[in-house]
Amino acid sequence: MSFKPADWPRRLRSQEWFGGTGRDQIYHRGWMKNQGLPHDLFDGRPVIGILNTWSELTPCNAHLRDLAERVKHGIYEAGGLPVEVPVFSASESSFRPTAMMFRNLASLAVEEAMRGQPMDGVVLLVGCDKTTPSLLMGAASTDMPSIVVTGGPMLNGYFRGERVGSGTHLWKFSEAVKAGEMTADDFLEAEGSMSRSPGSCNTMGTASSMASMAEALSMALSGNAAIPAVDSRRRVMAQISGRRIVQMVKDDLKPSDVMTKQAFENAIRTNGAIGGSTNAVVHLLAIAGRVGVDLTLDDWDRCGRDVATIVNLMPSGKYLMEEFFYAGGLPVVLKRLGEAGLLHKDALTVSGEPIWEQVRDAMNHNEQVILPVEKALTQQGGIAVLRGNLAPKGAVIKPSAASPHLLKHRGRAVVFEDIDDYKARINDDALDVDETCVLVLKNCGPKGYPGMAEVGNMGLPPKILKKGITDMVRISDARMSGTAYGTVILHTSPEAATGGPLAVVRSGDMIDLDVAARRLHLDISDADLAERLSHWTAPAGESDSGYAWLHQTHVQGADTGADLDFLRGCRGSAVGRDSH
Questions:
Q1: How many whole angstroms separate alpha carbon 210 and alpha carbon 89?
Q2: Mean confidence (pLDDT) of the chain
Q3: CA distances (Å), origin 175, targets 369, 435, 460, 503, 536
Q4: Nearest-angstrom CA–CA distance, 508 and 160
């Protein structure tokens, strides 16, 4: 920790708009005053943008307008001027073809909103899966003082006495219907129990994982990640974060001061300890690329390989985010990592203190939820990075959500050329498949879908489910919902749509998987593989206009975060040019 606060008072960038008596300053101030703002609010105090991803089509974030008001209270209390700014909200539940396609667009829009307007610091008000990484990416690119406030998870769901985890039970119940173990009417009845309060997923899905990543990266105040959306302490967190960002501006404490290589290593180990989403891989790689930190898939494997999964939450475990909060939340996990020598204790946080000072006194109130290491769900819970001739640039699997007996497996490939081919054939009883086979899905990566949709956790064929089999090895270049589970290999790189080896896998090929050895191998000779690749042609259908064209033309592979090539490593000045 080597940060030295800047001198205060000093002239802030917002004064380029508001400070002075010239025509341009009067122009900017005068328009702002039509909202009833007193003149002395433009006296040089920090102007704080509340970047709000509220949207009624982003249900996870539909309560953020209330939280924004609490943030405003905190900013005013600390002597700042809050300005609430709506920003692009990529909804996981409603955006087509997939919210991931718009993560980079949202980050670019956020970056330009920050760069082009009179803000000295920002509060990133987020919740739904892609809103957290997209705003962190935009903030990293401008390097303006920033703090994350998440909306919090929804309350536990219950159906006929059973805990219902958002997403996780959707997959479970839908498979049960296909297997004939649950009626369609029961499924519809269960729907009402899945989302019974405001907030994001109550499982350790991507939203909760990324809230935890923001806290482990030290970009949110300690304890932020797990507070339920409807708990009064969520509003308190919003208000004190509003206070804190004002001081961060005065100190000039920026994302590049906080999101160091040590912070990213802390986050990777935290993701293993909580059984976090595989989506965290592409998001942290992208954020690191924006802030200028050299982070690779090898770092994920190196840092996460020996981390035990101690948080007993769905989809890996039994409980939900509500219990995680009551047990003590993420500070307890960070303390455990510190005690095990797996935490960079001196990593600077947005509080201005080292992370260890924030968590050293955390107490575990429920060892059924946050487990002792000797009772961990798995002793090697980090994301495993697989390599081999099928994934030269890597593929990932989440061992804590997989079936142990399938982590070393050899099986016959059953290949689907794209998601439409999968949907057309998966329910056909004539499909040549048994439980020992490996389901392979192509052309669902960053370019292929486009956008790399969450279709990697392919539902099993009904004739397999009716045998009582609930898991098979599945391989794709797609992503998987953080709420999902199974022995699912994802992010296979290079992707099929760019001519990666996945593109030439054929039904009947044998595939070897050995997670302990980090091996994913297509059992054909190098010569045969080269021959197949020499005859490969790119799939047709690339968009020729709009953002879809921009995305498909410039998106990078999953192995580097699936960011746009012209945005990676683009951190620069946040000062905009005056046009008047």
A1: 15
A2: 94
A3: 27, 15, 8, 28, 35
A4: 43
